[in-house]
Amino acid sequence: MSLTMPPGPLAGSPGEMVNFTIDGPKHRLFANDFPRRVRARFAGETVLDTERGKFVHETGLLPVLYVPEDDVRTDLLEKTEHTTHCPFKGDAAYWTLRVGDRAAENAVWAYPEPLPDSSWLRGYMAFYWGRMDAWFDEDEEVRGHLRDPFHRVDARATSRRVRVLRGGDVLADTGRAKLLSETGLVNRFYIPAEDVNTDLLVRSGTRTVCPYKGEATYWSLRDGAADVGWSYEEPLVDGAKVAGHLSFDHDDLTFEVGPPAP
User: Which of 190, 193, 222, 227 is deepest in the core (most CB within 10 A)?
Assistant: First the structure.
């Protein structure tokens, strides 16, 4: 994400504060070797198992893992008539993955005759992440997508005073927040639950997954807007410092950030 999203060097517009230019197309592709073993499972079968994956970064998109055809259970694939065209990579062919009575339609694709500028894709296949049952980075299950080695998450303690208001109600007021910086995203303040007026909130049924921080639980205003805040109750290592904290973002809320209390 840090390579292909602004202000990364492979973004379409990496910014003006640089002392270089890139002689090449505005839409850029970059592949690097993924450093670990990756497996995907579907209907009880390991359908890919590779230590030779290539992580393909493409302007404006999340990276995609491409794996050698030899590391794919091609005996479980059925070629389909579906095709798509990418002006940067070429014409993609698709396969349905079938195991017993389960099938993932057009879940696998490849570029049998890639364009010259992306000829290194020849012999590699890619899988739609969400159509598999589980993915493993070495022996650890990964949710959301593979972690980008160029992506960072840093959480730092801050004594700045942070207030979150809903109209005349103070939803949160703290001088001991955590400031979380994540590549390509705006900074977020995470506030200790003890400094949040949880009487104004009710837990919602929304859940999202971040491969760097973990599964987020969402909170709604008890008498108003839905999903105004979220928390990571059992965060992954990168988000460990924000355990027991809530963050907020909604048009119905006002945020005040000031200097530390004297």
Answer: 190
Question: Which two tokens mark 17?
Answer: 């504060």
Tokens 């005040």 -> residue: 256
Which residues are CB-contacts of 156 (< 8 A; sequence separation ≥ 6)? 178, 179, 180, 181, 241
Length of the chain equals 262
Long-range contacts of 127-131 (CB under 8 A, 24+ apart): 127/40, 127/47, 127/48, 127/65, 127/67, 127/97, 128/104, 131/42, 131/97, 131/104, 131/107
Task: Using pLDDT thresholds of 50, 70 and 90, give the confidence band for residue 1.
Answer: low
| pLDDT, tens digit, 9 for 90 and up, residues 109-126 | 999 999 999 999 999 999
Which tokens sit at 256? 């005040």
- Phi/psi of residue 64, each to 5°? -125, 135
| Residue 140 CB contacts under 8 Å (≥ 6 apart), including other chains | none
Q: Write out the two tokens for 57.
A: 């970064």
Instruction: Say if CB 159 and CB 260 are below 8 A apart.
Output: yes
Query: In this structure, are residues 141 and 132 in contact, taking their beta carbons and an 8 Å threshold?
Result: no
What is the tens place of the pLDDT at every residue in 156-189?
Answer: 999 999 999 998 899 999 999 999 999 888 999 9
Could you tell me if 197 and 172 are in contact, meaning their C-beta atoms sit under 8 angstroms apart?
A: yes
State the Cα angle at 80 between 125 and 74, rounded to 5°: 40
Residue 181's contacts (CB-CB under 8 Å, 6 or more residues apart) are: 152, 153, 154, 155, 156, 187
Across 135-146, average pLDDT: 95
Amino acid, res. 19: N
Q: What confidence category does residue 14 fall into, taking pLDDT thresholds of 50, 70 and 90?
A: low
Question: Is the previous residue joined to 7 through a cis bond, with omega within 30 degrees of 0?
Answer: yes
